[in-house]
Design a protein that fits this description.
By secondary structure, this protein is α+β, with helices and mostly antiparallel strands. The chain is built from six helices and eight strands. It binds ligand HQG.
Amino acid sequence: MYTEKDLTRTSKFLSLVLRHKPETIDLPLDENGWAEVAVLIKKMKSAGHDLDLDKLKYVVENNNKQRFAFDESGRKIRANQGHSIDIDLDLAPQMPPAILFHGTATKNLSSIFDQGLQKRNRQHVHLSPDEEMATKVGSRHGNPVVLKIETGKMHEAGFVFYQSDNGVWLTDQVPVEYILPAFS
Ligand code: HQG
C-alpha cells in the first residue's frame, strides 16, 4: 500500500526533524526529545509530506532499525537514538556485555587508534551488539571494518553505558586502550 521509496523518504525526514533539525518544520521537542504526534503530522503535512497517523504508525513499526518510538500514551514520538541536538534520552545506566562492536571505515582507523572513539556530531559513541550490525554501520562510511571494544573493562573502570530502545549501546567515548587491534 505504501511504496518503499515513500516510506524511506518519510523515515529520513523523521530522522532529520527528530534527531537533528526540528527547526526545519518548527517542531517543538521536549527535553527528552519527544514531539507531539498531532503537531508533527500537521507540520510535516504543511511541509509537503503525505502523512497521517496510520502511515506514521506503519513507519514506526516497520522501520528496519526501529529508529522511532511512541510513548505509552501514543501521543508523543521520538527517535530512539542518533541525536545531534542536545536532548536527554533519560535512559538508565546498564551493565554492558564484555565485548561490543563498532563499525567504521578503514580510512578512520589511524585517527581512531590515535584519539580513541569520539562522538563527533552525535550525543554518544554508538556501539553494536554484534558484528553483523557493526558491519552495516561501518559500510555507511566506506570500506567497513569492525572494532571490538572491551566494554566490560570500561564498565569496571567507571565508564557509563546506556542501551537505547532499539538495542544500540551508547557511551561518551572509548579511549584507545579499550579498542582491540583490528582483525584480531
Ligand atoms: C568515526 C546509524 C576518526 C566513527 C547507525 C564513525 C548508528 C572517528 C564516524 C548511528 C573517530 C561518526 C551512529 C576518530 C569516531 N577518528 N573517526 N577519533 N571517532 N570516528 O554516523 O557510529 O542509520 O556519527 O567510527 O546505525 O557510524 O542513522 O556514527 O564512522 O547507530 O539510524 O566517526 O547511526 O543509525 O559517524 O553511527 P556517525 P556511527 P541510523
